[in-house]
Design a protein that fits this description.
By secondary structure, the chain is mostly helical. The protein contains ten helices and two strands, in the order ββαααααααααα. The radius of gyration is 30 Å and the shape is elongated.
Length: 271
């Protein structure tokens, strides 16, 4: 009696189950196995005839007309028109400036915390999307939403109160944000961006929120900034001229997401 070790390659792939082979044993694959050992021997014999590497050769052409989702280039976003992408030197400079700003922001937060200057109680709650919309934009909806879509009570409120255009991400606000709030407010802004478009004020908020985002990224934060980069790329592809003032901030956010936050598959190709 001996052990069949023909499938063991220099002991790097040890047998999971030992298979015994009787001397002078006639083995007929045409006869159903009568024991567990015979079944394992049958499996071993059949495996010898199988190629080590198998590649599926499937003709996909019959299914092309049924395809409903198509992956766009460069991480799921439209490629930039010619002349719309920044050079590598510009991207490296922006990334270095951003890294320096993050360090300054962190030092300032520590200093303000020691002095008791962080006033989180004056900010909207983390899940108060309407409160954050009013704080950032001064209205229930972000810019770009038609006034006809605003509820009548909100219109009446704006008529009796002084017009409030929202605030920029001041240090007193940004320093008071804990990480869950940073991620949640970033999500709000990405949703507003995708629904109503991009504005300079929102660009300031995006920059401040990215500067407050901790590394390593959580899965949620990673998904959000990737969504931001894709939205920036898709909007960039629709700009009629490279002189559009939105082009620079859109390129900046794509640059920061891809280079600083290591989402390299979303980076603009460098020629």
């Amino acid at each position: 009696m001996e052990s069949d070790d023909s499938l063991v390659d220099d002991e790097l792939q040890p047998q999971a189950l030992a298979v015994n082979i009787e001397d002078n044993d006639d083995f007929d694959l045409n006869i159903p196995p009568t024991s567990g050992n015979e079944y394992l021997r049958r499996v071993r014999e059949e495996a010898k005839d199988c190629p080590q590497i198998v590649v599926a050769d499937i003709d996909m052409s019959p299914f092309l007309h049924r395809q409903t989702v198509k992956i766009r280039e460069y991480g799921g976003r439209f490629p930039a028109p010619k002349g719309y992408t920044p050079d590598l030197q510009w991207q490296k400079m922006q990334t270095a400036n951003f890294a320096e700003l993050r360090q300054k922001l962190q030092r300032q937060k520590v200093l303000m915390a020691k002095k008791g200057l962080l006033k989180r109680d004056k900010l909207p709650q983390c899940n108060d999307v309407e409160g954050w919309c009013r704080l950032c934009f001064g209205r229930l909806q972000p810019p770009g939403v038609s006034q006809r879509e605003v509820k009548s009570e909100v219109i009446m409120e704006e008529e009796v109160k002084p017009k409030h255009e929202g605030v920029l991400p001041l240090m007193s606000i940004v320093a008071a944000l804990d990480q869950p709030t940073v991620i949640k407010v970033l999500e709000y802004h990405i949703n507003w961006f995708e629904a109503t478009g991009f504005s300079d004020k929102q660009g300031s908020w995006f920059y401040a929120l990215l500067a407050s985002l901790q590394k390593p990224l959580s899965p949620e934060a990673c998904a959000l900034i990737r969504s931001l980069a894709r939205s920036c790329g898709n909007l960039r592809a629709t700009l009629e001229s490279p002189e559009d003032p939105r082009l620079v901030p859109l390129n900046l956010f794509i640059c920061l997401v891809s280079l600083y936050f290591d989402q390299s598959d979303l980076a603009d190709p460098v020629t």
